[in-house]
Amino acid sequence: MKVTIKLPKPRNPLAVRARQRKAGSHKRSEPSRQVQKQQLARQRWDD
Prior knowledge:
Largest sheet: none
């Protein structure tokens, strides 16, 4: 009698990489901290 083991479906390697780098939508999010600091410095300079 031959025993066969059913293997799970192989995972998509691209999907795994996308999850690891926390991929998300391509729209811009709020400004980075560095940009916020620059804007704050400009406001202080103008005052």
